[in-house]
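User: structure tokens for this one?
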Amino acid sequence: MSAPASPETRDAGTPGTLALAGVAQLAARFDGFIVDQWGVLHDGSRPYAGALDCLERLRAAGKHVVVLTNSGRGEAANLSLLEQIGLPARLFDRVIAAGEDARAALAARATPFHARLGRRCYAFARAADRAFFEGIGIDFVDAVAQADFLAVIGIESPGEATAAREPELVQARARGLPMLCANPDLTRFHEGRLVPATGALARRYEELGGEVFYHGKPWPAIYGTCLAALPCARERVVAVGDSIEHDVLGARRAGLASAFVTGGIHAAELGVSGGGTPAPEVWLDFERRAPARPDYRLAAFVW
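Assistant:
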């Protein structure tokens, strides 16, 4: 395992990325934090070591924290999950969820895409996910043949294999059905291990030639909702997450600073564990292949 980062070191050959020892260094620069949950705050069943303490310290320092999640559920359900895991709701200004964004867009028929979806929806969703999308003029159907469109909202833990849903995706593509994705995460943590997430179904549908509209990270619109919930100037806001493709790229598209947690979903790829930091050559190779470069990197969400 590599030696811990110094309080602030600039990676050799990567002048745009600062390696920090903890969130305290970010708190000296920023007043608003847009924080991912899975892979940063918790693993789906328990908080990561130091995460609760870090949130408490941010609150004590007068900082504002919005959780931005690609969850297909709404704010109340996500706050309830955080509470059950051991992260009190009082530590967050808001929880902004991709599912809530998708529900609002469907209810308002907010774009030409949403306006032409029709009423009959074949959903990849759990019972609780379906309940959240009720009351907005959608009729859930039991077969692809009956549907006007598809919705990817949630899949059962520890994740349904995309291959098992291939026949439904192929049938839908043959009918030319559009798909709404209310959770674009490709993988997520569940009890300490990575499992497939809902976004893998949407990605596969695109590979088949299907049309997909995504809600959540890394698309910029949802960051506007986060900024509206934070009483901070844009330049005093940082997005913290463990996904280069979602958190870092999303922040870059929204014009925000980003801090990347190396011990999250990319930990194995970076060769780190237990709070370690990547070897310089591993990090440089990772950065070269990344769709966006973070402004900062942290081993974990600790103070």
